[in-house]
């Protein structure tokens, strides 16, 4: 691990301002992604700003009937909250489908949203990777691409965003609240938080340098049956090949977000109109324009079949 | 830096890069906690912090000052085994033993999670606070601890036997 200096942030504004001002600064929350990447020198921050003392560890009702989740609420605590279990069950289910008990005790809401891809070449500093080293090429295209993305990808990068929680947040229309280095606050819809790679896969989010996430807000509950179905290579403690987060109403209408296939939680609102008609039509809409590799084309079929299983479960 | 480890207050002057795992093993000689993958993927390094299980390899020591850290050395000793340690011996919960301290620390905290009603991926009705204690439930909740020797059946049996009361309730409910 490269040397770095360390400080504990006193306030959110201060943290954001100092992060923007200090070259090579990064926030550290649970550290379960950042420290992993620092050990292998994929991440080499010169300065760490520990945000764990900032509070932001509460889950509170909002004035319009929703829920405001602090950026530092641990994944375990979020999944266990009775209001989440009752009104936003999809979020609980997605959280407990991810990582392990130990990791969820450390992982935070903001850290989970901003975790980086698990592309094996991103992790291997001997390999070309446009995300890790812009302009160096992409070893995954033409390499071992089975776990990687099929849609929203580019000629430069086919990595996926690995978060389960983010899939639920996308289906629930969450909003990310931040503080910028100049002290102003803003709200970013979850749909706009993650960027597609295009020609700049190293730029992953809409956040500015030093911008700190303070909370994630959920709008008022919409009812329906909440299902998170994750397909992976082993039954637990593995990232998704494909995952479906769905909220389905009695009349068959609903929302679907898909994980494991794209650089961001994948949702196409227009495709949801076809939901009462069955999985095939919805999958066609969700996957229009897909560009799978030879190794990961199976994900297209897997999305349709997993969605079919989810819809059948909702009807049962 | 000051740490509270197994109820003892300890001063240690370590580089800010030191993981909690390396602090325990390399600086304090507490080698019961094991280093398997060093990347959060195996659970061998599991310790308890304020009663909760975490992977000590993905933790910076500097972030854990003044927290209550419990390692396998604090859980039991050769002369005074923790009931779960005794059960691991009785039920063949290990072969080489490398994953065992992590398994035991993890299981102790996992029981606490069940008692507090935390849901798992197998919890069917999220509204219920009473969580079952079935074999599948334990397997799912212990999935963060790998065992290369494949002693899983013995591990599950040891856990179920130690917390027999809960297992009995579970069987009763199923009947
Ligand atoms: C073995 C293993 C298996 C896993 N399996 C899964 C899985 O199946 N599904 C899944 O979804 N995840 C999985 N994970 C990933 C895990 O969920 C993430 O590591 C975790 O959620 C990251 O949260 P953290 O708080 O530890 O983030 P950190 O590591 O502290 O931070 C991650 C990033 O977010 C930034 N950051 C943190 N907080 C803020 C903030 N408030 N504002 C702005 N930036 C911030 C940091 O600077 C850093 O860039 C796995 C991880 C491991 C190691
Ligand atoms: S897919 Fe993206 S992250 Fe993976 S090697 Fe290519 S550029 Fe890097
Ligand atoms: S050594 Fe920490 S999880 Fe493997
Ligand atoms: S007993 Fe050998 S790894 Fe588990």
From TrEMBL, chain A:
Residues 1-223 form the FAD-binding PCMH-type domain. One of its GO terms (molecular function) is oxidoreductase activity. Keywords: FAD, Flavoprotein. Pfam families: FAD_binding_5. Coiled coil: none annotated. PANTHER family: ALDEHYDE OXIDOREDUCTASE FAD-BINDING SUBUNIT PAOB, XANTHINE DEHYDROGENASE SUBUNIT C-RELATED. This is Xanthine dehydrogenase family protein subunit M. It comes from Sphingomonas chungangi.
Automatic annotation (TrEMBL), chain B:
It comes from the Bacteria. Keywords: 2Fe-2S, Iron, Iron-sulfur, Metal-binding, Oxidoreductase. It comes from Sphingomonas chungangi. This is 2Fe-2S iron-sulfur cluster binding domain-containing protein. GO terms for cellular component: periplasmic space. One of its GO terms (molecular function) is 2 iron, 2 sulfur cluster binding. PANTHER family: ALDEHYDE OXIDOREDUCTASE IRON-SULFUR-BINDING SUBUNIT PAOA (PTHR45331:SF1), OXIDOREDUCTASE, IRON-SULPHUR BINDING SUBUNIT-RELATED-RELATED (PTHR45331). InterPro entries: 2Fe-2S-bd (IPR002888), 2Fe-2S-bd_dom_sf (IPR036884), 2Fe-2S_ferredoxin-like_sf (IPR036010), 2Fe-2S_ferredoxin-type (IPR001041), 2Fe2S_fd_BS (IPR006058), Aldehyde_Oxdr_Iron-Sulfur (IPR052914), Beta-grasp_dom_sf (IPR012675). Residues 1-75 form the 2Fe-2S ferredoxin-type domain.
């Amino acid at each position: 691990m490269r040397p770095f200096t360390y400080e504990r942030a006193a306030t959110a504004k201060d943290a954001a301002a100092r992060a923007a001002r200090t070259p090579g600064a990064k926030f550290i929350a649970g550290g379960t992604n950042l420290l992993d990447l620092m050990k292998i020198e994929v991440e080499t921050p010169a300065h760490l700003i520990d945000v764990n003392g900032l509070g932001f560890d509460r889950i509170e009702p909002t004035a319009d009937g929703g829920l405001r989740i602090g950026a530092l609420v641990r994944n375990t605590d979020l999944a266990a909250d009775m209001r989440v279990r009752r009104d936003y069950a999809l979020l609980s289910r997605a959280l407990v489908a991810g990582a392990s008990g130990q990791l969820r005790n450390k992982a935070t809401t903001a850290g989970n949203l901003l975790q980086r891809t698990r592309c094996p070449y991103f992790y291997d500093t001997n390999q070309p990777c446009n995300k890790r080293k812009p302009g160096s090429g992409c070893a995954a295209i033409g390499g071992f691409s089975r776990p990687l993305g099929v849609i929203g990808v580019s000629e430069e990068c086919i990595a996926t965003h690995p978060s389960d929680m983010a899939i639920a947040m996308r289906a629930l229309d969450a909003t990310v609240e931040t503080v910028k280095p100049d002290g102003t606050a803003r709200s970013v819809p979850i749909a706009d938080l993650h960027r597609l790679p295009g020609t700049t896969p190293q730029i992953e989010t809409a956040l500015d340098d030093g911008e700190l996430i303070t909370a994630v807000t959920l709008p008022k509950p919409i009812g329906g049956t909440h299902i998170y179905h994750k397909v992976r290579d082993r039954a637990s403690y593995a990232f998704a090949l494909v995952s479906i987060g769905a909220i389905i109403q009695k009349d068959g209408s609903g929302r679907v977000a898909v994980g494991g296939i794209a650089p961001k939680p994948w949702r196409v609102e227009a495709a949801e109109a076809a939901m009462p008609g069955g999985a095939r039509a919805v999958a066609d809409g969700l996957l229009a324009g897909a560009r799978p590799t030879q190794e990961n084309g199976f994900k297209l079929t897997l999305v349709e079949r997993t969605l079919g299983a989810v819809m059948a479960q909702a009807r049962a | 830096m000051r740490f509270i480890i197994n109820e003892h207050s300890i001063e240690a002057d370590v580089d800010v890069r030191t993981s909690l795992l390396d602090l325990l093993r390399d600086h304090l000689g507490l080698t019961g906690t094991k280093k398997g993958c060093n990347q959060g993927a195996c659970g061998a390094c599991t310790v308890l912090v304020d009663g909760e299980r975490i992977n000590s390899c993905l933790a910076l020591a500097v972030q854990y000052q003044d927290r209550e850290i419990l390692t396998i050395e604090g859980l039991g000793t050769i002369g005074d085994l923790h009931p779960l340690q005794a059960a691991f011996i009785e039920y063949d919960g290990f072969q080489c033993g490398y994953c065992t301290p992590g398994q035991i620390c993890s299981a102790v905290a996992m029981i606490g999670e069940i008692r507090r009603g935390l849901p798992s991926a197998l919890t069917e009705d999220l509204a219920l606070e009473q969580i079952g204690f079935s074999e599948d439930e334990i397997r799912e909740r212990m999935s963060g601890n790998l065992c290369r020797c494949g002693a899983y059946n013995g591990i599950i049996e040891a856990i179920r036997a130690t917390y027999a009361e809960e297992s009995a309730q579970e069987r009763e409910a199923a009947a």
